[in-house]
Amino acid sequence: LLFLLTASLFFIVSAQDNSAVLDKIAGRLEIYKQHFPLEKVYFQTDKEVYAPGEIIWFSGFVFDRTYNLFSGNSSEITAALYDASGTVIKGDKFTVTNGAFRGDLLLDKEMPLGCYYLAAYTPWQDTPDHVFIKPLVVEAFYKSDAVVSLTDPGKIYQAGSKTTVDLQ
Asked: Which tens digits make up the pLDDT trace of 11-22?
């Protein structure tokens, strides 16, 4: 009888210890969720090298990190272009619908050549470690580069149709 009482006491204490451990883990998960954003941004641009005066076209997605689904938490995203020193060149806010967004930024015609960084983040992402950053290059086109133009650039051409193309 003494043995059974001792063994049952051991199991009761052990169950209480497990409960305390589970409560401690749950508390740590809450702390983790408070310190790390619930959202993750992924985006892509139409290309990685631009000329001054061109438009950067981009689109992307915002995911809820808890469930790995499209996020419904943020209704807007900020996209900003930074130079190599970290100075904001330009930026804007864009609407997020069902976890997806798209937008564009027009580069200045007199923009200095070099490396730039396009960053996108939601209001939930408050530290630089959680911001999605994509490096971009602004490079000049040279006179020796080929220039292709269509005779009627506004026209939509059907597949298989023929048209005149000028190559300089």
From this structure: 554 545 567 777
